[in-house]
Amino acid sequence: MNYIAIGNNSTIAISDIPEIVYDDFFKLNTELVANHPERHCVNYFGYNYGERIKLICCIADDNSHEIFVSSCLVSPTDTLKAFTSKLLCFEKFEREIHENFGIGFSGHPWLKPVRYSFNRNDKTKTIANYPFFKIESEELHEVGVGPIHAGVIEPGHFRFICNGEQILHLEIQLGYQHRGIEQLFIEKKRLLERTTLAESIAGDTVIGHTTAFSNIWESLCEFERTRDIDFSRTLALELERIAIHTGDLSAVCTDIAYQLGSSVFGRLRTPIINFMQEWGGNRLSKGFVRPGRNQFPFTPELGKRLALVLDAFERDFDEMNTELFKLPSALSRFERTGVVPSADILSIGAVGMAARMSKLNRDIRQSHPFGLYPELQHQPIIKHHGDVYSRVQIRKEEVKQSIGYVRKLIKNIPEPNTKPFKLKTPNPNSFTLSLVEGWRGEICHCAITDSKGELILYKIKDPSFHNWLALALAVRNNEISDFPICNKSFNLSYCGHDL
Amino acid sequence: MLDNIKILYHQGKQFIPNVTTAEVPGIFRGRPIISLEKVNEAELQELCPVNAISINPVSIDLGKCTFCGECAMRFPNKIRFTKDYKISTNERTSLIVKEGEDKLVEVNPEMVRKEIHKVFGRSLKLRQVSAAGDNSCEWELNAANNVQFDMGRFGIEFVASPRHADGIVITGPISENMAEPLQICYDAVPEPKIIVLVGTDAISGGITGNSPAVDRSFLNKYPIDLYIPGNPAHPLTIINGFLDLTRKRKSKK
């Protein structure tokens, strides 16, 4: 066997990962993924290993619920045959490895910088000189947007090539949000510092990312989670999904100039995040998830409160949706706008909601369940058209589904565990991988420890890392005036991508 | 049409009538109060993930604090977070809460530049620049403009161009990659103009402040007109901060 199959959140010795020569590594991983829509790459990265670079590739199999991990030692001066020459879904991973270590990849279409990280290999490349794709033609013009956007949102630069009002091509340049988070995970040694870092990866996915970090840490320390911990995290993750999806429905309505929908969905987000504050003291759930403990036990009183909040929420949510989905002026803006066909979604390796809106069933809650999801028997919501309409529908239906899960969960509130927690030091020379289905999609964190149990690598992958390319494809041949609604219908993370 | 009116009727009045006195639900962590009780101060100081706690005397810097509440959980008799969300100020030192003091964090009207009252007293248009913010303060700035908090009723709004703005609102620790765009944006705002920092990340750099990927030199060049702390800042902290800056008058002598 030239790979090892592991489960979600399991810790293995780093020496258990088979190390193979690059030709075998190439063949293994590309063959695992090619013509297997149930498999995709959840993480592929390198790290310094003496004078050389160790590459680790993790392919998840949704049917067998396993993750296949393999590794390969290469030199920074090598030029390797790019996985991307066979499969486009490895495109960004290889760009990142090239940017960080200078390893060359032959047959890769565009080895452009991913995020201009502070510790990149080639400092002569700067964010102000990004090599945009260009088409020379007198009929075409370019439109540049950003890095600072018109609204109150994060920075990123979008470069459109347009023929009149029609978009021919969009290239998205990111990196403005880069804070060096992965490096800080190594440098900051205290657990609370690292947990706070995990909360800052993406402030709109605090539960998602902090759950991934906590699950990794607990696995490294061989900590057995009590039921109340998993209960709180699962419940909070679903509430986060409800809140952000509802906010996104508001944003989509804003972009089609539907004031009523924008106001109603916008205000409906408030009771959900205010409930998170009632429960944990912070509207965006900061300070909530902590490795090894459940510091805000969910009480029966909170359960009663939450049931009331959801009843009031659902009534208004349903009424507004009924109206929105029969409004011709809204439907004409949603339907057949920003289509990404399922073949494209598969080839770029999209995950989460961006995959499910175009027939591709990718949902960690079903394929690699964690927390209390095995009991919930989650069935992902799949749409088929790949357009804005499908993405809006997914949000509406996932909110309803999550409300159902929350109601089911709070019927049976576990007793809080009052025993004092004690976390051991992390296992030495170990590798752990954690997958969490946040509201955007699959979050993947990986950790490697040294002989003393200290972190030597912490690798974070937000679903946006895969999905930004889906947005670039979605807007092709659409009018440039439809760009905002396409963008909001994905609502991808800048800071989660840039780290 | 009738359905739309029905929805409006069902929604009723959503706005918070008085944003200066509204109470926040649950266990909000706002302005802390530190008692004079003797505790293991070294342990307390070591606990904080962002070194916001100093000793001799024990104090918490709200410009650094992530409001995680860990210190209050470990030393409940020493530190207590109140539900007081009015913690915005124009003086950096006012953000430092000392033991034995139960003092409000306020805007000092004596220190507000006089053109701010004169020019922006009834209308303030702002350009928001997210400089490596994690999208939490950005969410809350947007929430401050929703139908419930409705900051627009006070004439305070976000605009799409620096040319239309009276100042900039910065979130995030300011990454190296955002330093130049931020400077360009600030330069494009006409005088007189203000700078507002929203959130712990912007005020002190927060948990990522000492990262080599962060460049905070912009902040050394200009005076800061308002600090709005929080992780993220609560919409009521944001609105009250702006109201105090633009409307709170000097005491008549």
Question: What does this protein structure show overall?
Answer:
The complex is a heterodimer of chains A (499) and B (253). Chain A folds into two domains: 4-114, Beta Polymerase, domain 2; 181-498, Cytochrome-c3 Hydrogenase, chain B (Orthogonal Bundle). In chain A, 40% of the residues lie in helices and 17% in strands. Chain A is built from 17 helices and 13 strands. In chain A, helix 4 (191-200) runs antiparallel to helix 5 (206-220), helix 6 (227-255) runs antiparallel to helix 7 (259-280) and helix 6 (227-255) runs antiparallel to helix 14 (388-409). Chain A is globular, with a radius of gyration of 22 Å. Chain B is of the alpha/beta class and 253 residues long. In chain B, the strands form three sheets. In chain B, strands 7-6-8-9-10 form a five-stranded parallel β-sheet, with helices on both faces. A three-stranded antiparallel β-sheet of chain B has the order 2-3-5. In chain B, helix 5 (136-144) crosses helix 9 (235-247).
Task: Write a compact overview of the structure shown.
Chain A is of the alpha+beta class and 499 residues long. Chain A contains 17 helices and 13 strands.
Supply database-style keywords.
heterodimer, A: 499 residues, alpha+beta, Beta Polymerase, domain 2, Cytochrome-c3 Hydrogenase, chain B, four-stranded antiparallel beta sheet, B: 253 residues, Alpha-Beta Plaits, 2 domains, five-stranded parallel beta sheet, 10 strands, 15% strand, globular
CATH classification class of the largest domain in chain B: Alpha Beta
- Name of the CATH homologous superfamily of the largest domain in chain A: Cytochrome-c3 Hydrogenase, chain B
Describe the oligomeric state of these chains in a short phrase: heterodimer
The count of domains of chain A is 2
**What is the molecular shape of chain B?**
globular
The overall strand count of chain B is 10
- What separation lies between the terminal Cα atoms of chain A? 34 Å
**Under the CATH scheme, which architecture of the largest domain in chain A would be assigned?**
Orthogonal Bundle
Q: How many DSSP helices of chain A?
A: 17
Give the name of the CATH architecture of the largest domain in chain B: 3-Layer(aba) Sandwich
Largest sheet data of chain A: 4 strands, antiparallel
Low-confidence stretches of chain A: none
